[in-house]
Specification:
With about 240 residues, this protein is of the alpha/beta class. The chain has a seven-stranded parallel sheet with strand order 1-10-9-6-2-3-5, covered by helices on one side. The longest helix is centred in the N-terminal third of the chain and has 18 residues. The two termini are about 15 Å apart. It is built from seven helices and ten strands. Helix 2 links the parallel strand 2 and strand 3. The chain binds fructose -6-phosphate. Fructose -6-phosphate (F6R) binds next to loops. The site of fructose -6-phosphate (F6R) has 14 residues, from loops.
């Protein structure tokens, strides 16, 4: 794991976007895994202005089950609003897990389309307060493929900040599995703020533990972790 501790959120976003841009410059038809949430918003803001998505192929990590794709809080909506509507990406190269219809079939098809594109070259990840990656909550298997997942109370609470009330937060999602994520050739995880400090510490300095999903990344041979000083505040070694 290669760790970059940046001064603040803006510098974290700058560093993350520079890494992504470098990958795209080296391989214009990069297969790029994408995340949603608050953390990557700054990174997307920079990529919108500076990156060339003409040939890039994207695969998002996850989508809620129970709200439609055009719901303003769906991850489909988020991606178009924060990135896809502003870049020159070919719409046929955009992949986001579908929570419409047969989830099991959609999940298998999703993993197969990643495989057909030659696998993910670079996967961008955020980090849950409970150390989830994608929507793989504590207890998720290391070799899990894409599928339907039950969100934990901690995640529902964290995500309720976007909804009018906690009862409106979907309780299920379709997510790439940890196995799917671990197959990516390289990984870029970003995290910001004190709320993530314990998860960051457990991910980097703790034991590999099924209850700390991000700790499985210790086994991956090419991981860049870009965090701000607040998120790094519990780390012993800096
Ligand atoms: C989103 C995702 C999640 C988030 C995580 C952190 O696609 O897969 O793992 O990255 O919940 O969310 P934020 O960035 O909102 O703190």
């Amino acid at each position: 794991m290669k760790l970059f501790i940046m001064k603040n959120y803006d510098e974290m976003s700058r560093k993350a976007s520079d890494i992504i841009k470098e990958y795209i410059n080296t391989k214009p038809n990069l297969v790029l895994g994408l995340a949603t949430g608050s953390t990557p918003e700054g990174t997307y803001e920079i990529l919108k202005k500076e990156a060339n998505f003409k040939e890039v192929i994207t695969f998002n990590l996850d989508e809620y089950i129970g709200i439609s794709e055009n719901h303003p809080l769906s991850y489909h909506f988020y991606m178009y609003k924060n990135l896809f509507n502003h870049v020159d990406i070919n719409k046929k190269n955009i992949h986001i897990p579908s929570s419409k219809g047969d989830i099991e079939k959609n999940s298998k098809d999703y993993d197969f389309s990643i495989y057909k594109k030659g696998g993910i070259d670079l996967q961008l990840l955020g980090l849950g307060e409970n150390a989830h990656i994608g929507f793989n909550e504590p207890g998720s298997p290391e070799d899990g493929s894409t599928g339907s997942v039950q969100l934990t109370n901690s995640t529902i609470n964290a995500n309720s900040r976007f909804f009018e009330s906690k009862s409106q937060v979907p309780t299920k999602a379709i997510s790439m599995g940890i196995g799917t994520i671990m197959k990516a050739k390289s990984i870029l995880l970003i995290a910001s703020g004190l709320k993530k400090a314990q998860a960051v510490k457990n991910m980097i300095e703790g034991n590999i533990d099924i209850n700390v999903p991000a700790s499985f990344l210790q086994k991956h041979s090419n991981v860049n972790i870009v965090i701000d000083e607040d998120a790094a505040s519990f780390l012993k070694k800096k």
